Amino acid sequence: MNRIRKLQGPALILALLALLWIIVILVLLVLKPSVFSLGTVTTILQFSTILALVALGQAIVILAGGAGIDLSVGGIVSLSAIAGMLAMKLGLPSFLLPPACIIAGAALGAFNGVLVTKLSILPLIATLGTFFVYSGLALALTGGAAQSGVPSWLLIWGRGVFSGIPVPFLTIAIPVFAIAGIVLMWTAWGRWIYAMGFNERSARLVGIPVDRARLILYSLSGVLSGAAALISLAWLGSGRPNIGQNLELESLTAAMLGGIAILGGRGGVGGVFAAVMLLVTLKTGLLQLNVNTVWQVGIVGALLVFVLLADRLSQNWR
Amino acid sequence: MLKHIRKALAISALSLAVSTAAFAQDKPKVAFVPQLIGIPYFNAMEAGGNRAAKELGVDFIYSGPVDTNPVDQLQIVQNLIDQGVNAISVSVLDASSIAPVVEAAKAKGIKLFTSDSDAPDSGRAVYVAQATDEGLGNTIIDELVKRVGEDAKIGIVSGEATASNLNAWIGFMQKQAAAKYPKLKLLEPQYAGGTAERAAQISGDLMAANPDIKAIIAVASTTCPGVAQAIETAGKIGSVIGAGYCSPNTARSYLKSGAFGFTVLWDPAQLGYLTVWAGKQLIDGKAFEAENKVPGFDNPVTYDATKGILLLGPPAVFTAENVDKFDF
Amino acid sequence: MRQLRNGVFSLNGREWSLLVACILAIIVFSVASPYYATSGNAGTVLRNSIELLLVGLGMMLLLAMGGIDVSVGVVMGLAAIGVGRALGAGVDPVLTAFVGPLTGALLGLLTAAVIVLGRVPAIVGTLGLLGVYRTAIFVLLGGQWLSGLPTGLTLLLGTTILGLPVAAWVIALAYLAVWIALRRTPFGLHLLAIGNSEEKARLSGIPVVKIRFATFIVSGALTGLAATFYVANYRNVEMTVGSTLALDAIAAVVLGGTSILGGRCSLVGTVLGVLLLRILQNGLLLTGVPSLWQPVVTGSLLIGVLGFEVLSNRLSLSRLGWASK
């Protein structure tokens, strides 16, 4: 078990990301010093909250191996936001909206988990199927119309800023990452997840309930997506049937960039957090410099390839 | 990692003190955020905006999302606000989600207004309209009825199901049909997303499902080529006509082949010009008159003070006969 | 290995059920809509399947090899720009037809260089390339779509040979060529062996790098060929070309019985998978179901078919007395 934790990969990735992040900031600093204000920090954190939560869900699913991946995260975000709003229209008291979104997310995630563990459909295909179903349902149920009527007390929470930090980021994203980090590093649960990802056969042999754990992890990814949906409601003030568009690819990019090995068993949540920050800072920086947005997707793509190659080369040297 | 972040945050906080002092501007800045970049329509608006910027002495910033994703659009607007751009115009993707940035702009004293696509109850300063949504919806129905008669069956193919301006146009089409032409049968709108391929597929299916269909309306400019191509491929030129809101350049060959009967549009370059002009007026603190003289415009631009709408003028109808006079 | 190769031609369980599903869907829709069973509509369904059939064939080879490519949509877009530009510049239509596959093959080579030489997982590597290629599309088009292209290519590919349209011949030839390559040449054996276990394939002396390069290039060329047909069909290249193509292709191929773990593929299944998707999409619209429901149907079909197969396998196993593992 020690061998797993001592792997060089995650540390290398983390250092690389931190370096890149500082480079981005320095370049910005030189080109456009006016960028740096508390307002920019708030903006960056605000636009990272949803991606951070979803990327964390993506990361733990991949980490646990078994070719784990969750392509349906964007669909879950859209559908849980819509489900919450529709439930309220059907008479759900407004104070139950937050739990409704989370429960919807958990249920959708659990369905993925059932497909993967009970029916043994490969995760890529199972979640590709649910990606179509969830994101399609969100649009079809609403005919594409945004659902208004988010209670005003929720908006106060969603749009609030506490000493430069957006309240949802402070109250959800930070605690969730802290908990995930602690669980993965210091608990038996965390070791199980790494063990499952590292070598599923031996994990089963030593008695880890792999299937049950995996089912829970897919549900957790759903919970995180449900939380992201809730934040989108509280922030934008309406439920959008395509709010989760592109999140599957963005979260996958963040998780991979953050050093989570696609085959599982390697990587940590710190890297994911750093990757999300890097992605959003980079986007913000390019926007502040008024670089045409077409370059964003290309630069992020190239960055992903670059980090993968760097990781691979470092393994060859060892 | 946290240590690095903390260090970098410290650096950035330090630089803040230096930078705020250094921040000085010469020309006022006006920005336009389209719904999507890389499509001819908004490119033409950009060109008009650039022309206006040169003539009116402002800096013009054009920046928009690569997908029709409202969160990406919000992020762009928010960054323009953080940059301290003086006036920001947005072609709103989703009227309901623009509220957070309107508040942020107000807090910083930045003029935020809409152009091309509106968010009526958001507290925006003004809406620079190409034509009223009502006018656009009505025109296409009236023009179609002239060509296919009052008791025809008409299909509608739109782009994203979530685009609020497209949905508003469709709403007025249905209203006009119900009020003025009770025998007209408008089919349920279908949504093709942003691709011509899907639009063609759906149009083909619509024609197969309704052999008596007389016309198909392409609501989003991205769906025009698909709808027209489907009519050509199905060999239905003459029995089905296409129509839509797309630029003469996109529709030219289809208008000439007969797959399209007409398209309804305004001059997006003029709209871009007017947008930047309106931004300059707002920055200068000048109120809009009921009729405004805008340099380079033949007719005065009307302003509806109760709704806060600055109107470019009635939409133009392009047909095979007049299409060659335009290049945008 | 013999068992694996059998799956390539003779109809297996999955292929039978897909065939039955196609026929059932056609019968149901014919009853539900009087306009369904017309030659015009059949033509519409087949025309709508052209691109997916070609891209799906390439994707099938990649999956069978244990690879994947999520950037095929944008590769088609780039190839379409190549074809469109050539057509617009007045190049002879016969030559322009080859611009597509050529551009596609070159991009396949580039993809392979990153994935194979860099030894990065295909799904993540092609995700990165997806971003890079997308930016390339934006930069190349610069907001000006290629609209109203000359009809030369459309006329060329619209002609019929022995009563069948050129597209049908090209697709049949492509499938035949892949069939021969899989069945009659060492390429097929090697490809499936790599899909089964790359390590074992390498140890047994199979030129893994060469085969993987070749497969990416072939898939690129097929995607480029699809681009040629796209341009001929629509005479328009916009920047969103193919944005949903990759996921659709993967869904169709997997539906057809090809395993994403590699080592198993089915040509007949791929054709049937594509057709079933298109038949359902077309039929639902004809029977009045709004187009917004189409992805829901695609997804349910995918989950339903794969889930059903697992359940029925389990059931038959337990009935035979080979109960639980």
From TrEMBL, chain A:
| Record's bilayer topology term | Multi-pass membrane protein
Q: Name one molecular function that GO assigns to this entry.
A: transmembrane transporter activity
Q: Which GO terms describe its cellular component?
A: plasma membrane
Asked if the keyword Acetylation belongs to this entry, the reply reads no
What keyword terms does UniProt attach to this protein? Cell membrane, Membrane, Transmembrane, Transmembrane helix
By its UniProt entry, which InterPro entries does this protein fall under?
A: ABC_transp_permease
Return the protein name. Answer: ABC transporter permease
TrEMBL record, chain B:
Its name, as the record gives it, is Autoinducer 2 ABC transporter substrate-binding protein
Domain (Periplasmic binding protein) ranges:
30-286
Which Pfam families does the UniProt entry name for this protein?
Answer: Peripla_BP_4
Residue spans making up a coiled coil are: none
What's an example GO cellular component term for this entry? outer membrane-bounded periplasmic space
Keyword set for this entry?
A: Signal
Signal sequence, renumbered to the chain: 1-24
Q: Where in the cell is it found?
A: Periplasm
Gene Ontology terms for molecular function: carbohydrate binding
Q: Which organism is it from?
A: Mesorhizobium helmanticense
What family is reported? Belongs to the bacterial solute-binding protein 2 family.
Which residues span the membrane? none
UniProtKB/TrEMBL annotation, chain C:
| Topology term for the membrane | Multi-pass membrane protein
Q: Which UniProt keywords apply?
A: Cell inner membrane, Cell membrane, Membrane, Transmembrane, Transmembrane helix, Transport
Q: Where in the cell is it found?
A: Cell membrane
* One GO CC term, this protein: plasma membrane
GO molecular function terms listed in the Swiss-Prot or TrEMBL record: transmembrane transporter activity
Pfam families in alphabetical order = BPD_transp_2
- TM segments? 16-37, 57-82, 94-116, 122-141, 153-182, 213-233, 245-272, 292-311
CDD domains reported in the protein's UniProt record: TM_PBP1_transp_AraH_like (cd06579)
Q: Does the keyword Cell inner membrane apply?
A: yes
Q: What biological function has been recorded for the protein in this entry?
A: Part of the ABC transporter complex LsrABCD involved in autoinducer 2 (AI-2) import. Probably responsible for the translocation of the substrate across the membrane.
What does the subunit section of this Swiss-Prot or TrEMBL entry state? The complex is composed of two ATP-binding proteins (LsrA), two transmembrane proteins (LsrC and LsrD) and a solute-binding protein (LsrB).
Q: What is this protein called?
A: Autoinducer 2 import system permease protein LsrC
Its source organism is Mesorhizobium helmanticense
